[in-house]
Amino acid sequence: MEISVIGAGYVGLTTAACLAELGHEVRCTDNDAEKLNMLRAGHMPFFEPHLDEIVKRNFASGKLQYVASEEAILQSQAIFICVGTPPLANGEADLSAIEAVARNIAHLAHGYRLIIEKSTVPVQTARRLKQHLGTYLSNGLDYDVVSNPEFLREGSAIGDFFHPDRIVVGADSRRAIALMKQIYQPIVEKSFRCPVHSKCKNDATVSFLVTDTNSAELVKHASNSFLAMKISFINMVSDLCEAAGADIEKVAEGIGLDRRIGPAFLQPGIGFGGFCFPKDLQAFVRIAETFGCDFALLKDVENINRARVQRFVAKVKKELWILRGKKIAVWGLAFKPNTDDIRFAPSLEIIRSLIESGARIRAYDPQAIERAKKEIPEIVACDSLYQAAEGAEAILLLTEWGEFMEADWARLATLVDRPLVFDGRNCLNPQEVTAKGFQYFGVGTASMAAVEFSQTAAD
Ligand code: UGA
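That is the input. Now the predicted structure with uridine-5'-diphosphate-glucuronic acid docked in place:
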């Protein structure tokens, strides 16, 4: 099918490239002409594993083109809207970019258009879009508006696109539903070649859920809020574990073994970040308020998350006492591994707070160091985890990149000034670290008591 994608950001570019990989003819546009030129020249605007190869392959074959917005609107029958919906000062989503795209479509397009809302938007946005298009149309445009929320995670977006748990389509016309089925048919029928794993064994069923547009929009906000709630819940339980002398890893395992709960999103730490959970949670609270519902539960989820950073900083201060002039190594800046995204990353808040107390930060991240250095110029940007550790009084692990789990602790012991490690993601092996003389502080473990217990259990 001929498909246009408006917005070449994280969601738009991933969607455009993956739809081209499925065999569709895709035109991708963005109001940032510089970004389109960059893509034409073969440069990626952000890092996402496997995306560059898919983008380049499909651009080279002509399946993916970068075009002006007019061409995108005029030439394709299906138009995905993937523009940003950033938060306003009051927490509501700013829908002005979506409104502008809709007006443009109404002015330019003629014949039938399937307009697919992919950006995360408040409930009833599709309904408003439909009315809005009707108000501005000028060329005999016939159209359907569909809500098709995206559930991609940064860092694993390609795998998520090709192997989703579900595809949700909110639509109120048969024609729209049939076209959406056609677009996603290769994924639902598993008839595509997986670009990530050459011998892909993922044959889990993909649910294709058709709803009304309001419900589809709510699925997105409710899903992100529910996941955020799981994280804040486990973080509170981890505080209790620390206070009462229990081990959160075991508690989370025990909870997650209940199939009704499941093990995912029960990893405690320094709190959730990124451009989705914090903003979607706030927006959802505002949306609920608009409809007269006080979603107090989600306000608590937000508050618990906000307190994670200070709790972690307090732990560091408790051990180091005075921070002024002390070198602290920070491993990991991105809000999660396998991305260079630092938006709303808890690591940056932690660093800012430590710098305020006079600490000197030596930071390393496999992908996000340049972005972070621009954001916080005071940090000393290091080329490796070992360089960051040189002369440090403590190592703070803030993002669970794979390479940190492979670190050589014997070598690190020779580099640091004081062998102290704060594992903000519980991803290190405490036995291995303590065996090399480091003092280890995880999240939600009654410090050494838990380490000693697992050592005994292992013996
Ligand atoms: C999230 C959702 O998982 C996607 O389904 C959704 O499409 C996306 O938002 C979006 O709305 O665009 P993402 O923000 O990329 O995806 O990352 P997640 O893997 O969900 O992680 C979010 C944050 O939660 C990270 O800071 C991560 O470190 C934290 N987290 C996650 C925990 O602290 N504990 C966990 O157990 C899981």
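The longest helix spans residues 213-244.
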